[in-house]
Design a protein that fits this description.
- By secondary structure, this protein is mainly α.
- The chain folds into 3 domains: 107 residues, no CATH class; 85 residues, no CATH class; 101 residues, no CATH class.
- Helix content is 48%, strand content 1%.
- It contains 13 helices and 2 strands, in the order H-H-H-H-H-H-H-H-H-H-H-H-E-E-H.
- The protein has a two-stranded antiparallel ribbon.
Length: 312
């Protein structure tokens, strides 16, 4: 079985994106497959966990019953579920989305201080993700964007620990804000300020070849070289490369090393493995387990390589 055939022999959430990005399928075929995300497979399963109040597991970032006494971070609350539905490609105009989003706006409150869900809270990693999903599902999030613009650090990125005195940007926080700003810019046209902030943050990553320290050239965190899905708030090289692909930018030579890493991880059968699972409570497993062939990493890696090879 070819790699493309293997991907197509899976879930509608994979199939419609393969049709859209890796084949010559028509827009009608893409739309027909994407429609199934709401009704079949992972998308339908995740939607079934939504509560009557529109929330997942009763909370915004954390489940309502979370006490902190469990391994990892629980990934079952609303923020993570919405991000996953976006990655699966749930149509924002679907009946499920049109029902859920107003309920979340009405009932969702951040655990930090009870802020309404789509007004964001104080951590830029959370606010960046809220901007991205808010834009995707058609919610006004400009005030959160303004807050993010005011919180940039001198080196060009963001860090959730800035409120505790950090003056250096975090790869994890910065990629979450970048995803949000790109979505906002695409949906609204953005502004010179938004674009400048986004390009400065891109430069923060590019100066570090996506995973190296600017000062010494050493690897910032070995976990950044492991490809995970879902990635939630966490950073890795494949996620960063996929951001640059979606940005529409020409491939920067400083991405060469990271592209080489992606290519080196391809298996003999054409797939990429799931390198890592971020520990914590989930509604269900999307992939077969760490060390196993990964539909999502394979799709994402092929898209990145296709973008790079066609643009060079």
């Amino acid at each position: 079985m070819s790699t493309t055939a293997w991907l197509l022999d899976s879930d509608p959430a994979i199939r419609w994106q393969v049709f859209a990005d890796l084949t010559d399928a028509s827009q009608i075929e893409v739309a027909a497959e994407r429609f199934k995300v709401e009704h079949e497979g992972w998308g339908a399963r995740l939607l079934a966990y939504e509560g009557p109040d529109g929330l997942w597991d009763g909370g915004a970032c954390f489940p309502s019953d979370y006490t902190g006494n469990e391994p990892g971070q629980p990934w079952t609350a609303t923020m993570h579920s919405l991000q996953t539905l976006q990655l699966l490609g749930l149509d924002p105009k679907s009946k499920s989305a049109l029902k859920a989003i107003p309920l979340i706006a009405e009932n969702g409150r951040w655990e930090h201080a009870g802020q309404p869900y789509f007004q964001g809270e104080v951590e830029p990693c959370i606010n960046g993700r809220t901007v991205e999903t808010g834009v995707y599902f058609g919610v006004e999030v400009a005030p959160i964007v303004e807050r993010l613009l005011s919180e940039r650090l001198a080196d060009g990125g963001w860090n959730c620990e800035a409120e505790n005195g950090s003056v250096r940007s975090s790869f994890d926080t910065t990629i979450n804000v970048l995803d949000g700003l790109l979505a906002f810019e695409r949906a609204t046209g953005g502004s010179p300020e938004v674009r400048a902030a986004r390009l400065d943050a891109e430069e923060f990553l590019l100066e570090r070849s996506l995973f190296r320290r600017k000062s010494t050239g050493g690897i910032v965190n070995p976990a950044y070289l492991d490809f995970a899905f879902p990635y939630y708030w966490r950073y890795d090289v494949l996620r960063a490369l996929d951001y640059f692909r979606r940005s529409g930018a020409d491939p920067d030579p400083r991405l060469e090393e990271s592209l080489g890493l992606v290519r080196s991880k391809q298996q003999a059968d054409g797939s990429w493995l799931l390198d890592r699972i971020h520990p914590g409570r989930v509604h269900f497993d999307i992939e077969d387990g760490a060390g196993k062939p990964s539909l999502w990493n394979t799709l994402r890696a092929l898209r990145v390589i296709d973008w790079w090879d066609h643009a060079r």
